[in-house]
Design goal:
Length: 195
């Protein structure tokens, strides 16, 4: 791990950073229970396990004072009428904020608190989004042909709680209707893990 100030560039084709430590790839199989159309999810998975999104992380100590950062790339695609999206998570240290800066593409950040507040914010190039402490967050790519690329940065000690979303899902979904994204209530909320 570098012990001097360091930099990286993200202007290379496909927005892959010039330097990174971890390359995380998440596939359809990691989204069990999250998509509304469970039959389509199962039939797609029976044929292939497409890559939904990738994260390039710069490794730093997971302690207060450090800032973890990197690039997230959600590819275009759909499961039924629901767009490719990230798993989404709360931070383990719930009172942790996170900044996203959209570099490319067209999407939404779906957010909610444990108390049931929700918000959906557009992501487009040049837009900065501050995800408040306590808010779970999931990026959704609503483009039919372009990656959704964001730079993210958050405190080193935040940790991740994926389990709550894996079990319950998000309260809101983004679905395509007549070619346009629509925010709808998630009828499976609270039981996402159930087949
Ligand atoms: C981490 C930050 C992003 C996400 C990435 C993938 O706190 O929010 O780096 O990790 O967008 O999403 P997920 O939900 O699979 O971690
Ligand atoms: Zn996060």
């Amino acid at each position: 791990m570098k012990a001097v100030p360091f930099t990286f560039e993200i202007d290379s084709p496909d927005f892959i950073p010039s330097t990174y430590d971890n390359h995380i790839q998440r596939r359809l199989s990691s989204m069990k229970g999250q998509y509304l159309d469970q039959d389509t999810y199962a039939s797609l998975l029976a044929e292939a396990d497409p890559l939904l999104y990738e994260v390039y992380e710069l490794q730093r100590p997971t302690v207060p004072g450090e800032l973890l950062h990197g690039i997230s790339i959600v590819h275009p695609g759909k499961v039924g009428s629901e767009y490719y999206m990230t798993k989404g998570h709360f931070h383990e240290v719930l009172e942790t904020g996170e900044v996203y800066y959209c570099l490319k593409g067209d999407g939404f950040m779906v957010m909610e608190t444990p108390e049931g507040e929700w918000a959906v914010e557009a992501l487009y190039p040049g837009r900065v989004l501050y995800v408040l402490p306590r808010w779970a967050h999931r990026s959704v790519n609503i483009s039919s042909d372009e990656d959704l690329v964001t730079f993210f940065i958050y405190p080193g000690n935040a940790g991740h709680d994926y389990g709550t979303i894996e079990k319950k899902g998000f309260r809101k979904l983004v679905l395509a209707r007549d070619g346009q994204p629509e925010i709808v209530d998630n009828p499976r909320w609270g039981q996402a893990a159930r087949p």
